[in-house]
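Chapter review: from sequence to fold.
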Amino acid sequence: MVRDAAHVDELFDAARARANEGLVVKDPDSIYTPGRRGKSWLKYKKALATLDCVVTAAEYGHGKRRNVLSDVTFAVRREGELVNIGKAYTGLTDAEIATLTDFFLRTTISRHGPVLVVEPKLVLEIAFDRLQESKRHKSGYAMRFPRIVRIRDDKTVDEISTIDEVRRIYEGQLKREGQE
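The token string follows.
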């Protein structure tokens, strides 16, 4: 039984130390129903960290977002070049996505199938649950469960996060998980 919010944080930290993504908070009287979500069982996760990244590509979304560029690929800096580290499609309002769609269409450099490569001008703060090594992204890392926290109008591309910051977060994560 949970005592208070500090106890939840303690339990969460212990779960992270076991390499779990988070906790499941549930009503003790509820019944587990496979494949169904409800308010009796809730996931509790916290972001590991955030990075300031620049958008390098955009794609049209799906469903109600099929007509807007809502899926963005983003990068960090590595010795003067931009290296992709992830892709996100959550965290922005419909109004922000509409505005960014116009921006991405104006700043498109090239198109590769559904992917619009855009001028690297827009900086976003991206939260994520953990980092993992990746052969898919040029950075060598990928974010798990990335989500956009906010548009960083106050930052330029020269001020985005670096691969060294990514490496420090990754190594700290490994220490916490006892995987060094």
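Two observations follow directly from the output. The chain has three helices and eleven strands. The CA atoms of residues 60 and 67 lie 6 Å apart.
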